[in-house]
Fold Large ribosomal subunit protein bL28.
Amino acid sequence: MSRKCDICGKGVAFGVQYSHSHRQSKRTWSPNIRKIKAIVNGTPKTIHVCSRCLRSGKVKRAI
């Protein structure tokens, strides 16, 4: 499954995780991506959308 939002382009973020003793390791943060059927150019199409775009109403869901 794609880890990128088709609407806003939000993708995986990279960073460093620190333990209590301050040892560090690389880690990733994945966005909350949902596979939904939406209206794109007047026709229903399956796209990958983050939950923020769904909540804010940037996507018109197909029924």
